Amino acid sequence: MAPGISCAPRPVLPGGDGVHELTTHVVLHGARLTLHLADPRSASARAATADTQSGALPLVVYGSGDGGWFGAAVGMFKMIAGGGYPAVGFSSRALLKIEQAGHAPLSGHQIGDSYRAILETSRRALALPPDAPAVLTGWSRGASLALLAAAEPDSDRAVTGIVAIGLPRDEQLDVEPGDDEDPVPAVSSPGSASRPGAARELLMYPLLGRVAPRRSAIVQASGDGYLPATQARVLFGADSEFKRFYEVPAGNHRFGGGKDAFRQALLDALAWAGEARP
Q: pTM of the predicted model, to two decimals?
């Protein structure tokens, strides 16, 4: 895979206080995946970060839900960037379309390879060191992809941990037909019933043990319609030095009615997962 960069400035992110968004792309299997980059640092801060990692916030890699890059998924990315993190976001739906084109069945190794290319491209585009620390995160299917990538034994060594938002019980690495911008019906969300010809189900929570000694954090809504926080906690087990569970009082998979509590939990989880150093 040969990563490619082609940046174009976009408007300042709302509520980001000087956070500028750029778009670039990475080439995976001969196809382009659009990356959304957010850089809250000033030009002088970027220059300083290029010389040293000391005290710098980690790069956050964020994957959307299975619907694509719109709505609540974009709002979560802006929340991360507004917290002061250099960040890169992408459509999990678009990534899986690329991965599935002649490369079935998919494997965690293949997902890990793509994440390494995304990290390399993002670090270059944001003028970060090639070994700058990073936290992998994502919502719903994006959480599954982050976990799969981090669980690979040859994953990027500078990844300090993951923050899985709305992690499903199991995952099917497939996509419904349609454009990336079109919302996908709720029935196709992670953890739903198997469809004819669907990819095999992968259980997510057992993979957390393969991420350690990197850190793993789960942020789950109490009213998540796919996997409520109480059920997710049972699958997760007790907190430890390597993993933490955050239950957010919210009404659904999108953390409806609990935005402030969700933001606090997400930023706390990112800070904890990012404070460790490889």
A: 0.84
